[in-house]
Amino acid sequence: MTGMLAGRMLADHYEKVTIVERDQFPVEPGFRKGVPQAPHIHVLLVRGQQLLNELFPGLDAALAEASAPTVNWGTESINVPGGIRLPCFESEMITRTCSRNLLEWHVRRRVAEFTNITMREKCRVEGLVMDPAGERVAGIRVYSGDVGDDGKMATEIWEADLVIDTSGRHSQTPKWMQEYGYDAPQETIVNSFLGYATQWYKTPEDFEADWKAILISGRPPDNPRYGGIYPIENNQWIVTLAGIGGIYPPTDDQEAFLGFARQLANPLIYQALNRAEPISPIHGFRNTANRWRHYEKLDRWPTNFIVMGDAFCTFNPAYGQGMTVSALSAVALDHHLRTHRSVDAPRLQKDLARASKNVWRLATGEDLRWETTEADASALGFTTRLAHRYVEKVRLVYQSNSNAARIFFEIAHLIRPPAQLFHPTLLGGVLKQVLSDLIGRKTEQA
Ligand SMILES: Cc1cc2nc3c(=O)[nH]c(=O)nc-3n(C[C@H](O)[C@H](O)[C@H](O)COP(=O)(O)OP(=O)(O)OC[C@H]3O[C@@H](n4cnc5c(N)ncnc54)[C@H](O)[C@@H]3O)c2cc1C
C-alpha cells in the first residue's frame, strides 16, 4: 500500500516510476503471500479515506460498485474503545468498509492508469547498489526469476535517481545498509503481545440489528480481549478476535473461537456469530509489535534513499492506523518534493518521522496501559502515566456525553490531532470529575 501511494505521488515529480513487487498480482481481488495480514479486518480510518479519495478520484464509486458497504461510525456501529462503550453521536464520519484485498486491488488499478508508472511484479529486491563513494544509492539489485547461463539465479541491477524502501515489516534495509558500512538504526519496540484470529462469515440473510459494525477493545487490567465485526463486500463479515498480553485467541477450533468471543466485554459479537455461517478457515497473526526504526536519527545517510511505511514505522494493528499512515507519508513525500524540488533524503526521513509521530504516541500510549507490554523503561515515564490517568478520565466523560464521544472518535480517526484530547468539552468534563471526586472524599472524611 505504501509503495503504491508513494509511487502515485512520485508520478507527479519524476519522469518514470517503477514499483517493484515480489508477488504476482491476483487478476481479481484476492490473497497473495506478501500481504499475510490481508485476511484480517482492515479499517481505513476517516482520514485515510479522505486522502485516498483525493489521490484517486473514482475510487469510492468503484468500491461501491463492488458492493462495499458504508458505516456511519457515530450512528451505525458499536464502539467500545478501551473497554468503555461510546454512546451514539451525530456524525458525518462515514467510511466505505471492505476487505484489504478489494481496496488494494482498486488502488492498484488506479495506479496502473498513470502512464509514467510501471509495476514490475514477480521481481524480488535483493539489495541496494551504492555509488563508488558510498554516498549515493545508485539503484537496486533485483531477482526477476531468470536463471543465468551458469545455471545460477541471475540478479539484475536497476539504476534509479531515487530509491524508496516500502517492503513492510520485514524490510532488509538495516542489513543492506550495513553491507556498505552504514550504521543500523536504533529501534524502539513496544510489544503488547497482541495475537489475532480472524474468520470470514456470510452475513445472515434475515439479519437485522441497530448496528452494522462492532469494534471492542480490552480494558486493563482485567479484560485483555478484543473483537470486531466488520462488514465487507458481497454481504460478508470479517470477524477478528484478539487478545493482548499473550492471551491469544484460538485458531484451530471453531468452538474455542466462539468461546473466546463469548468472553468479550460485550455479548453482541458472540450472539451474532451464533446466527452466521463461517466461510473461511481461522487465520492467525501474532507479529504485532509497534516498531520504529529511527533512520531519521542516523548521522550518516545516503543522499537519495528513503524508507517509508511499515518498513520505517509499524504499529500495533488493533488501532487500524497503518494504511492511513501510508497515505499521510505519501502526502509528506509530495509536500517535500513540492517545497524542495528534489529529495533531501535525511530531511525527508525526518518529515516522514513527523508524519508518524502522533500515531505512534496514540498506539504505544494505549499499549503501555498493559503491564504485560514490553518496552524500554523510558517509554513509561511520568508523562505517559499521567496521560493514562487523564485518558481514563476522558473515557468516563465520553461514556455519557455524545459530543465528547464524537471528539474522542475523531482523534482516533486522525481527523483531529491528539492535542484535542484537551478540547474544552473533554478537559471540562475531566476537571468536573476531579472536582466531584475531591468533594466526595472531603465529605467522606467529614
Ligand atoms: C494483522 C494486521 C491487521 C492490520 N489491520 C489494519 C487496519 O485495520 N487498518 C490499517 O490501516 N492497517 C492495518 N494493518 C497495517 C497495514 O496492513 C499496513 O500498515 C499497510 O499495509 C502499509 O504497509 P506497507 O505497504 O508499508 O507494507 P506491506 O503492506 O507489508 O507491503 C509490503 C509489500 O512489499 C513486498 N515486498 C516485501 N519484500 C520485498 C522484496 N524484497 N522485493 C519486492 N517486494 C517485496 C510485499 O510482497 C508487499 O507487497 C494491519 C496489519 C496487520 C499485520
- Class inferred from helices and paired strands: alpha+beta
Proportion of strand residues:
15-25%
* CATH architecture descriptor text of the largest domain: 3-Layer(bba) Sandwich
Total domain count: 3
What's the CATH C level of the largest domain? Alpha Beta
Number of helices: 12
Largest sheet report: 7 strands, mixed
Low-confidence stretches: none
Question: Nutshell version of this structure?
Answer:
With 446 residues, this protein is α+β, with helices and mostly antiparallel strands. It has 12 helices and 19 strands.
3D structure, described in words:
- With 446 residues, the protein is of the alpha+beta class.
- It has 3 domains: 23-113 and 193-285, FAD/NAD(P)-binding domain (3-Layer(bba) Sandwich); 122-189 and 289-367, 3-Layer(bba) Sandwich (FAD/NAD(P)-binding domain); 381-445, no CATH class.
- Helices cover 35% and strands 21% of the residues.
- The protein is built from 12 helices and 19 strands.
- The protein has helices spanning 2-10, 46-55, 59-65, 100-112, 173-179, 254-262, 268-273, 322-340, 345-367, 382-399, 402-412, 424-445, and strands spanning 17-20, 70-72, 77-80, 94-96, 117-120, 124-130, 137-147, 153-159, 163-165, 187-190, 195-202, 213-216, 225-232, 236-243, 277-278, 283-285, 290-293, 305-307, 313-314.
- The strands form 6 sheets. Strands 3, 11, 12, 13, 14, 15 and 16 form a 7-stranded mixed sheet that branches. A 3-stranded antiparallel sheet has the order 6-7-8. A 3-stranded antiparallel sheet has the order 10-17-19, covered by helices on one side.
- Helix 2 crosses helix 8 (322-340).
- The termini are far apart.
- The model has no long low-confidence stretch (mean pLDDT 95).
- Flavin-adenine dinucleotide (FAD) binds next to helix 1, strand 6 and helix 8.
- Flavin-adenine dinucleotide (FAD) is lined by residues 1-3, 20-23, 34-35, 37, 40-43, 124-125, 166-169, 196, 285, 309-311, 317, 320-324, 326.
